Amino acid sequence: MTDKTNKYYKLTLVLGLLFLATSFLNDYLFEQLWIFAFLPLGLFGLALLVFFILTVTQKNKRGILIGILITGTVFATEIFSSELFKSKKILEATLMDDLSAIHLTLRADNTFEVVSSTMFSEQTFKGDYRLVDNKIVFKDRPYDNDFIPDTLVIVGDKIICRFDKSGNAVTDFATYFDIKKNETKNAP
Prior knowledge:
This protein is α+β, with helices and mostly antiparallel strands. It has helices at 3-24, 26-33, 38-57, 61-80, and strands spanning 89-96, 100-107, 111-118, 122-132, 135-138, 151-155, 158-160, 176-182. It has an 8-stranded antiparallel barrel. A hairpin with a 3-residue loop joins strand 3 (111-118) and strand 4 (122-132). Helix 1 (3-24) runs antiparallel to helix 3.
């Protein structure tokens, strides 16, 4: 094995590991660096592709194997985190604000996902819930503060977060979820 071939193999390995690290830490990097988080991912990915092509042209078996393993790891991770292996969505709703949105997804296996998106960050909360009549009762905390209570009420095409002292639903701006999809047993 020549020094040049060995060099391509080692660079493929190093760049592949850096690409995997930035790929797995992408959410954290986005939260810390915002749009600039895509720079390391793109740079390491492009450099990995270049050196992988060079190892293929040099017919370096170890370099080719490393490139295939890294590519396979990224694809497998993306596939396992996709909707293919998650339970069916039975309710989807969104609470919109001027500069942010909160997306609520209830699944058939009694798990939920709350994704809070702002201009600069995105947080995901997951846990279990149960439906009691037209109420969604979260077994796990659905948010990092008390903005979303542990019990929500489905009223028509809305999910109400709060009621006033008279028991009327509070439907001011950014105080309720608009239901996009509702396949629960208690659908209105």
